[in-house]
Amino acid sequence: MADNSQSFATAPRPHQGQAPWILQWNCRTFARQKPELLIRYRTWTQPTVFLLQETRDSNLAVPGYDIYLRPTIPRRQRMSRKPVGITSMQPVAYDGNAAVLVDNRFPHVELDLQCWGTSHQEVVGVTLQLHQREVVLVSVYVRPSVRKTAQVDWSWLENLRKTRPGALFVFGDDFNTHHTHWGVRADTFHGTNLVRAMEDNNFTLINDIDCPTRISQHDRQDDTTTDLTWTNKPKSIAWELGADTWGSDHFPNFLRLRGPAGQTAKYATSVVYWDRFHETLEATLLNTIYDGNPGRSFCWKPAWKNF
């Protein structure tokens, strides 16, 4: 079942204690979004981990991060321009569609998931220690419009569950499949198989199904949810959807890890002492100097500046 008590955010919410957080995002070609992304994340606490999809960059690099890519999906071939009657195909390229980036100050190990990479699916994962517990993070990308005859192998879910007992799992994925479980009108073949595999392994969807993660690109499309976040411990993850796509057609997802007791970091707030506010306000009014025009004051400052 989905956990739907979520919200929008322009950027990760302010917090105390440098709580680890994860950026999940289908960036729709990382090289195009990299300059803006670097400007944005330098104004926040840097994400501990990026879970990216559609990176399309085999030379992906971000300062301070270790990069994990296992490209298996071939880039679509294009016909090169030749004289009439002569055609040739360009060599197949593998740019990488699923990537995991880890802050290199955190000890971590890449998981061996390469056997689940196919021409229509990429699976990349790492394990690291956060909040004194093992956290397994996986980025998955599945090509859109995969035929029913194409096998999408979900057995990596069972493999991870059995080989990493006790770990907190976080899967940030673009499965490009539909199901009413995440707010789409109808179930698809691969969507039904995905839901069954997740439920069989006790993983929960934590998206807000009322918040689509992808913006439609033409009138015949609806905004939809293809970017899904699954976990085995939904109370351990706070999920928010970004309010800006940052140049992609997908919104970023902000994932905050709660503390060991299931508590999020406390937010800093401003406190107003109303008695002192009223006293200062009265004193300000009594001491205001006018230049003969009762509608204008020579000297003023908001009373709340004193607090």
Topology:
Blueprint (H helix, E strand, L loop, with lengths): L6 E3 L11 E6 L3 H12 L7 E5 L11 E5 L28 E6 L4 E3 L10 E10 L2 E10 L12 H9 L4 E7 L14 H12 L3 E2 L21 E5 L5 E6 L10 E5 L16 H13 L21
Parallel strand pairs: 1-12, 2-3, 8-9
Antiparallel strand pairs: 2-13, 3-5, 4-5, 6-7, 7-8, 9-11, 10-11, 12-13
Explain what this protein looks like in three dimensions.
- By secondary structure, the protein is an alpha+beta fold.
- It has two domains: 251 residues, 4-Layer Sandwich (Deoxyribonuclease I, Chain A), CATH 3.60.10; 33 residues, no CATH class.
- The chain is built from four helices and 13 strands.
- The strands form two sheets. The chain has a seven-stranded mixed β-sheet, with no helix packed on it.
- The longest helix has 13 residues.
TL;DR of this structure?
It comes from Haemaphysalis longicornis (Bush tick). This protein is of the alpha+beta class and 307 residues long.
Q: How far apart, in Å, are the first and last alpha carbons? A: 46 Å
The portion of residues forming beta strands comes to 15-25%
- What is the number of helices? 4
Tell me the overall shape: globular
**Major β-sheet annotation:** 7 strands, mixed
SSE series:
EEHEEEEEEHEHEEEEH
Q: Give the structural class.
A: alpha+beta
In percent, how helical is the residue content?
Answer: 10-25%
Strand order of the largest sheet: 1-12-13-2-3-5-4
CATH architecture of the largest domain: 4-Layer Sandwich
Low-pLDDT sequence parts: 265-270, 288-307
**Could you give me the name of the CATH homologous superfamily of the largest domain?**
Endonuclease/exonuclease/phosphatase
* Count of separate structural domains: 2
Number of strands: 13
